[in-house]
Amino acid sequence: MSAELVAECGRAGKALRVRGAGTKFEWGTPAPDPEVVVSTAELDRIVEHNEGDLTAILEAGVPIARAQEQFSAAGQMLALDPPLGEGGAATIGGVIATGDSGPLRHRYGAPRDLVLGMTVALSDGTVAKSGSKVIKNVAGYDLAKLFAGSFGTLGLILQVVVRLHPQPKRTVTAIGRSNDPDAVARGASDLAHASLEKECVDVRWGGGEGAALGRVGGETAMEQAEAAARVLAGAGLDTEVVEDDFELWAFQRDSQRSSDRAVMRVSGRQAELARTMRAAESLGGSLVARASLGISWVTLDPERIGDLRRELAPFPCVVLDAPRDVRASLDVWDAEPSPLAQRVKQRFDPAGVFAPGTFPV
Amino acid sequence: MAHDLIQKLREACGEDNVVTHADQLRTYESDGLLRYRVTPRAVVLPGSAREVQAVLRACHEAEVPWVARGSGTGLSGGALPVEEGVVISVNRMNRVLEVDLPNQRMVVEPGVTNLDVSKAAGPTHFYPPDPSSQIVCSIGGNVAENAGGAHCFKYGFTTNYVTGLELVLPDGELIELGGKELDRPGYDLLGAFVGSEGTLGIATKITVRIVPVPEAVRTLVAFFDHTSNAGRVVSDIVAAGIVPGAIEMMDSLAIEAAEGATHAGYPSDAGAALVVELDGSEAECEHRFQEVEKLCEDNGATSIRVAQDEAERQLIWKARKAAFAAMGRVSTHYYVQDGVIPRTRLPEVLERIEELSKEYGMPVANVFHAGDGNLHPLVCYDGHTEGQAERAEELSGKILTACVDAGGSITGEHGVGYDKKRYMPRMFEEADFDAFQRLRCAFDPAGMANPGKVMPTPRLCGEVPGPYRQHPLEAAGIAERF
Question: Lowest-confidence range among A210-214, B9-13, B347-351?
């Protein structure tokens, strides 16, 4: 049904936008309203959950929260924990299309790393699949990676195969606090380089103080968390071991979104964490970051967007949340389109109908 | 024309780095899959990205197809030369350019071996993908094939560790994709390039992510009367939520061969061997290792050997890693297959392989990355008897059909290359190939990069408007227009 609608738009040259739950519909360059919105609401089946194989097949419109409930009942999880928006509505298709991720990315990777296969509908009516339903496969091009993070500008994601992981039996978090950004960054980095196995390694900063957090899992989570706390203490942080750590991580995740200020995603480096925290602080902003990976989310007043970019150049700072008029007044992507990306777009969306003007292409 | 091209290659890379003598070209006529041989027109060994650019520009202008080659260890004929084409070897580009420990990144040239990447990251860090050929295989080849290895069930594949590439497109343009940073705005062209089997361009600089070495590693090998017992252990381990660093299974024939070659102390009458390696935090590793031992016992292990030190661990691994090469002791000729199944379908697929083995009268040894369902059946045959090689190949193809029928894949890590393109239609349909071709055409509209690989039927890209001109591949009869 949705594939036919896409083909029809392609034939008629009608601009379309794909919409899941709409929790990130505003992201990207503001463009005129599309002629057609293709909703994935009816693509809501969990097609397969292969427990013994740690895989699942989901239609694009399945809310992640609903899928997680089913996986959790089998002691498994889709290791993808981005903010899920109002009412936890975010769909698997939307999260993959935007490449969004949360703290679990430290150990398990981004959507691109967890998608094993994908079926897409293109604007010339082609419905094609790539990948497979096994966790190891190198037959054919990995088109799922191309579509992950493409913001619905290449085609409509109809269905995905994802890899699952066992849920740790319990998790415990070591947290180290300080009002010195260097100490927080050092603690997080020491933990990132420590030979302990971590589920998540994050930092937070705001209002003149910050913290490094390390989450460990398994039967011996407490013992490991104590070891992690010793690493953080060694960097001069005030440490605590938190057994009931759900709230700590909900905060990290939720801080990646804002309804009234601007949120920018900084593609930085681990060794630049202290500088990034200082920049956020000096501009009256706050930050959460995947310490080891070097990715930060900075929340600040929209009028400081340009300042942050100047402070952190040459690292790309993408504007995610911001009022529409602000996003319309600047380049949200902080990027020049490449001719190669443009050729890819032309090949996959020859009709040029998928979300024109919203992506750096 | 031919002479002009060779002259240009010499000007670009120096006389000594262009091979045209028939005897020397022979070295390059196959990769690790020796069944196919094609003599290229020339082999060129550029020493820098600039030289790669000059080479590709020259090929582009002369409309001569080319094949990039790393160490030539590939097992699918991915680096098989193209008739009258040029082979571009990246062996001279073998420098480790940067080890950036604070950011957990390394920047290397494509000719660096996989093991040297890990060594340069050590002793505190390592590069996880570890194909069996890691001593010689090149990181450039790993990128082309999206190489895996014994530890990829837990740690992932090459594609999960490459964060940046400098590459030369088939028209000679030098571009950068990604970098040390993640999530740069724009399409994940890097993700599309890794595993593209040399059909999109040549990587000249590779940035990879490295990770800290785990605090503890514990390894055991358990022996069973039958593969079904070992298979149940694997299921139980997965059900218990344990993610081993590696979990490898061998059947009786593979054990017999490996033991004969390595004297690692594997009992030669065992029906199955299961190598399980756990790594991670010391406390957790210890705790879970005991669980694994118990699961082996519960499923009827006839004996269990736990590595007491690094030397013993290496010995356990030596037998596993030698399994392919050791088959030579059991059979004069053998055919290495690489198929994947959903792990839970193992019993029925092994049964089917046994049936086929009986039907064809050819022994089949099984070596298996058990965690991720990647099977390596080794089909033994007598190559001196006429028709046996063809029958072995046929049997091998039927094993792949069994894998695909079970919901799996025709290749988990060796790639499609030349050898398996004929099996691609078992997994993909016309529309899927059409989508693949779109990517290909965006990178290589003229179709000069490793033509005749991956896709079952070579195809050309839609023409830009203008008068019809016969494509050189079309003229040579190796591609047709769709």
Answer: B347-351
A87 touches chain B (CB under 8 A): no
- As a whole number of angstroms, the distance between CA B88 and CA B418 comes to 17
pLDDT confidence bin for B464, thresholds 50/70/90: very low
What is chain B's alpha carbon radius of gyration, rounded to the nearest angstrom?
23
Pick among A136, A147, A170 to test the B interface (most B CBs inside 10 A): A136
> Chain A neighbours among B 221-250 (CB < 8 Å)?
235, 238-239, 241-243
Residues B21-71 have pLDDT tens digits of 999 999 999 999 988 999 999 999 999 999 999 999 999 999 999 999 999
B 68-97: CB under 8 A from A? none
CB B274 within 8 Å of CB B221: yes
**Distance in angstroms between the alpha carbons of the first and the last residue of chain A:** 28
Query: Vertex A347, ends A357 and A58: CA angle to 5°?
Result: 80
CATH pick for B336-427 out of 3.40.50.300, 3.90.550.10, 3.30.2010.10, 3.30.70.2740? 3.30.70.2740
pTM of the model: 0.96
- At the topology level, CATH places domain B214-330 in Alpha-Beta Plaits (3.30.70)
Adjacent-strand bridge partners of A4: none
Q: How far is A39 from chain B (nearest CA, A)?
A: 23
B466 has pLDDT over 50: no
> What residues contact residue B419 under an 8 Å CB cut-off, 6+ apart?
B33, B35, B36, B75, B76, B77
Query: Which residues on A lie below 8 Å from B184 (Cβ)?
Result: 267, 316, 335
What's residue B480's pLDDT? 52
Tell me: domain A169-330, CATH 3.40.462, correct?
yes
Residue among B131, B21, B16, B11 at smallest CA distance from B70: B131
- For the cut 60, the answer to whether the pLDDT of residue B290 exceeds it is yes
Domain with CATH 3.30.70.2740 in chain B: 336-427
pLDDT value of position B3: 75
CA B411 – CA B401 distance, rounded (Å): 11
B283 touches A at CB < 8 Å? yes
Residues B367-391 have pLDDT tens digits of 999 999 999 999 999 989 999 999 9
Please indicate whether, in this complex, the C-beta atoms of A133 and B342 are within 8 angstroms of each other.
yes
- So where are chain A's domains? 2-166+340-348, 169-330
Task: Provide the 3-class DSSP secondary structure of residue A7.
Answer: helix
Q: What mean pLDDT do residues A183-208 have?
A: 98
Asked if B165 and B196 count as a contact pair (C-beta separation under 8 A), the reply is no
- CA-to-CA distance for B33 and B37, rounded, in angstroms? 9
Model pLDDT, residue B481: 47
CATH fold group of domain B2-89:
3.30.43
Q: CB-based contact (8 Å) between B439 and chain A? A: yes
Token representation of residue A214: 């390390």
CB contact under 8 A, A141 and B440: yes
What class has domain B96-212?
A: alpha beta
Q: What is the pLDDT of residues A228-265, one digit of tens each?
A: 999 999 999 999 999 999 999 999 999 999 999 999 99
Q: b/e string for B26-46 if b means 16 or more Cβ within 10 A?
A: eebbbbbbeeeebebbbbbbb
Q: Is A253 in a helix, a strand, or coil? A: helix
The minimal CB distance from A142 to the residues B103, B169, B192 is found for B192
Q: Which residues of A touch B407 (CB under 8 A)?
A: 133-134
Residue of higher predicted confidence among B319 and A144 = A144
The pLDDT value recorded for residue B465 is: 36
* Contact (CB<8Å) B156/A167: no
The one-letter code for the residue type at B374 is N
CATH class of A2-166+340-348: alpha beta
Q: What ipTM was reported for this prediction? A: 0.97
The residue in chain A having the minimum alpha-carbon distance to the alpha carbon of residue B189 is: A146
